[in-house]
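Dear V.,

Thank you for sending over the compound details. I've combined the ligand you provided, S-adenosylmethionine, with the protein sequence from our construct and run the structure prediction for the complex. I'm sharing the raw inputs here so there's no ambiguity about protonation or stereochemistry in the SMILES, which I know was a concern on your side last time.
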Amino acid sequence: MIGRSEEYEKMFRIEQQLWWYRILHESVGRALCQQFGNRRDMVILDAGCGTGGMLDFLRRQGYTDLRGVDGSADAVAFCHERGLNASLLDLNDLAGYAPDQTYDAIVCNDVFCYFDDPALVRLLTELRRRLRPGGVLISNNNAFDVFRGQHDLAVGSTRRFVRADLERLFPMAGLRLRYTTYWSLLLSPLILLVRQWQRLQLRLGWRSPDEPTSDVYLPGNLVNETLYRIAHTEQKLISRTPFGSSLFSVSDPT
Ligand SMILES: C[S@@+](CC[C@H](N)C(=O)[O-])C[C@H]1O[C@@H](n2cnc3c(N)ncnc32)[C@H](O)[C@@H]1O
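Below is the predicted structure of the protein with S-adenosylmethionine bound, written out as C-alpha cells.
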C-alpha cells in the first residue's frame, strides 16, 4: 500500500463517514472505555495510523494524549493536515523509536497483514514491551481467506487471519488474548458476494490485477447508513460472532 498515494487520499476523504470505519472506531472507543472507564488522559499510540481517522475520532471523544506512527509519508502528511501528532516510522524499526516511551493503550488496525510470522512476532513483542502495567493492545485485522478480493491487491495485503493465528502468535510475544470477535456476521453474505464477484472478474480477465482498486469508497447515503445500522445493531445485540471479514481483538501483557 505504501506508495499508492490515491489509496491514502481516498481513505483520508471518507474514513469519517464510511460505515465500516465508523463501526471500527466505535469498537476501539468501547474497548478503551471498558479498560479505562471515563479517563481521557491515557497515552495512546496508533501504530500504523494511516491518514489519522482513528486518532481524529479519539480526539473528538476527548482523549488528550494521542500519537501516531506510519510508514507512509502520504499518510503522515494527511495526519498533519488534521493537526495530529504523527511521525514517519517503519514499524519494523519500532524498537529504535523513542525506546523509553511507553503507552497505556496501543491501537494497531489492519497492519498485521503486511508482516510474515517472524516479523509479526517481533512487532508484537515490541508493542507488548511498550505497554504500561494495565495497558491494552487493541487490534483489528482482515479475516478469512474466503474474503480475499481485489481490495487485498489494492492495499497490498499479503495475508488474512483467523482467531487460531492470534492464539498461536500472541503468546509468543507475551500477550494474552482477552477478547476476540469477527465482524460483521450479518453483512458477511453481501461482502462475500462482492469479493467473489471481484475474484471471478479477475479470473476471467475482465479486471486487470495490475490496476486494482480498494473497497474504500463511499456508497450513497442511504446504503451507507443502512450498512452502518445493520453492523451497529449486530454489535449491540451480539458481543461475539463466529464469522466476518474482520477480526477485532483486545489483548494485554501476560
Ligand atoms: C490498511 S491501512 C490501515 C490504516 C489505519 N490503521 C486504519 O485503520 O485506517 C494499513 C496502514 O499500515 C501502514 N503500514 C504498512 N506497513 C507498515 C510498516 N512496515 N510500518 C509502518 N506502517 C506500515 C500503511 O502505510 C497504512 O497506513
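A first observation: The chain has a mean pLDDT of 94.

Warm regards,
I. M.
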